[in-house]
Please model this.
Amino acid sequence: MLRTFLRPGWIALAVVVVAFAALCFSILAPWQLGKNSKTSDRNHLIEQAVSIAPVPLASVAPAGSGFRSDTEWREVHITGTFLTDKQALVRLRSVGERPAVEVLTPFRVAGSDRVLVVDRGYVRPEQGQTPVVPPPPQGEVTIDGRIRASEGTSPGRGAAVVDGALSVYTIDPGELSRATSTAMDPFYIQISPNQPGALGEIPLPQLDSGPYLSYGLQWLAFGIMAPLGAGYFIYAEIKQRRRTRGTASTDSAAVTTDSQAPATATSASATSERAARRKRLRAELRGDTAVDDSDHSETTRIGLGPDTEHAPDDVRDKLTQRYGG
Model:
């Protein structure tokens, strides 16, 4: 049985099952469960943020403090001016299940050198050309917006000039800072509706956890079911092989019995003949002389003299002279 399961097919099955189960438990399930945790944390922050009135930027994110994840989605007041000469377009976006181009305009905080990236909203793209973007108001203005984390930039997807406009594919203040040679904070501000310079509104994410939890549980279930399935196949194989061996043993015993039957019959016949012979001998030893009248043969029994009744005359005379009578 051990030799059977050391065949290449069974070894390959064992390797695949173990690898798949390890992948489910170490990568796939944690990946989906991690996304569920992130979504739940994001929803919690949004719920808290929408219930709090806007506050000055300095009270939530002072200059030089960097980005803190617990401040994301908080709405803040900012006073300053838009830097339209450093504006960039975020291409290949989608809003309301339709293509959109988001507009990033740096914003210098009044009374300082601090510059923030402000996502003013979106415009719809135009076929084969750069969309027309309404300019923000000139001079100093006060806007409200929500703090958002940088999306980062994938390799090879940095800022570039497309159709005469600076374009990016993610909202990454670090990338825009390098492209415009202007120091900017590591987070950005998503402008609130009805603010100076606001364009098409980008709605807040829906507050649902999505399917990630169920996906994670499914991968855990698959990781458990794969070894159980392999165990069932092994059990079925062992059971089938035992049944096959039992059938073969029964057939072999039947063949052996059939081959021994003629020998047994022959032995019984020989035994019967020997018994009949012994019976005749005993009868002859106990009985008288028996004469077969058909051929005048005689059988001499022990204890009796010769039979002179049927002997020739010369023989009878000699026997009479010798034995008398």
User: Anything to note?
Assistant: The mean pLDDT is 83. The chain has three domains: 2-47+212-238, 74-191, 287-323.
